[in-house]
Amino acid sequence: MSWWGKIIGGSFGFMLGGPLGALFGAALGHNLDRGMGQLGGEGFSPGGQERVQGAFFTATFSVMGYIAKVDGQVSKDEINIANTLMRQLNLSPDMMTTARRLFSEGKAPGFPLDDVLKQFRQECHRRQSLMRMFLEMQIHAAFADGVLHPAEKKALHHICDMLGFSQHEFDHLLNLVRAHNEGAGASRGPDSTGGLTLSMSYKVLDVEKSATDAEVKKAYRRLMNQHHPDKLVAKGLPEEMMQVAKEKTQEIKAAYDVIKKDRGMR
After folding, report:
1. Per-position DSSP letters for the chain, written without gaps between them
2. CA-CA to 93 of 20 to 30 Å: which in 4, 193, 216, 233?
3. What is the DSSP letter of 17?
4. Are residues 153 and 58 in the same domain?
């Protein structure tokens, strides 16, 4: 049974304390009283997969709401991208409702961003790939209206710092999102490049044009390993979010294919 099924079925106990637990409980609303039983049960140990999945789900949609509001107002584009992500994840009606409530919690005045991020990082137990996927989703949300506003960029930099990512890593994630927006995300066939340019392809793989073929291959393999859906799920990515990881691997492969074709690589 999935972690969500355990929550609805009442066998989950209380997986999280702290700010993430408070947000999750508030978002569940009456389902919390009806389905989870008494709070404070044993639940799952810190670092356990189900607990990390719950932390990822809670942090993703609540912080997304915060990012949407940070520039002063929540645009229709930002609401649409949150709803689009929820649909892409094939969330059940109950999960959809909870995700929307978490988004609203993030928009509320006094949202404890730093406390949420500190606990999220702690729950992830140094799972860098998982935190990287979380940050990519927040960058996608910030680009929802096609523009990265100064307030949004400042907030993303802060999130990046809180999760322990360098400026270089942040810039690379920005390039991944820009590549998605420029058309690589439309790639679905094995031989399609989605209209990705050669210049952007190098940015996606995070290598210079002067890199050797061996360095290009090494960068490609590293990124594919970081975004491998099965590995991310094993580290705590909710199974419903596997499609997002699959799309990332398609974009990375599209960039690699562009470079291979230009260089005549095999």
Report:
1. --HHHHHHHT-S-----HHHHHHHHHHHTHHHHHHS-STT-----TT-HHHHHHHHHHHHHHHHHHHHHTTSS--HHHHHHHHHHHHHTT--HHHHHHHHHHHHHHHSTT--HHHHHHHHHHHHTT-HHHHHHHHHHHHHHHTTTS---HHHHHHHHHHHHHHT--HHHHHHHHHHHHHHHHTGGG--STT--TT--HHHHHHHHT--TT--HHHHHHHHHHHHHHT-HHHHHHHT--GGGHHHHHHHHHHHHHHHHHHHHHHT--
2. 233
3. -
4. yes
At 201-255, the pLDDT tens digits run 999 999 999 999 999 999 999 999 888 888 887 776 777 677 777 888 888 999 9
Do 262 and 185 fall into the same domain?
A: yes
In this structure, are 96 and 170 located in the same domain? Answer: no
pLDDT in tens, 49-80: 777 888 888 999 999 999 988 877 777 777 87
Query: How many other β-carbons are positioned within 10 Å of the β-carbon of residue 266?
Result: 5
Do 84 and 209 share a domain, yes or no?
no
CB atoms within 10 A of CB 241: 24
Q: Which two tokens stand for residue 204?
A: 């996606």
Say whether both 146 and 179 belong to one domain.
no
Of 140, 163, 186, at which residue does a domain stop?
A: 163
The shares of helix, strand and coil residues in the chain, as percent rounded to the nearest 5, are 70, 0, 30
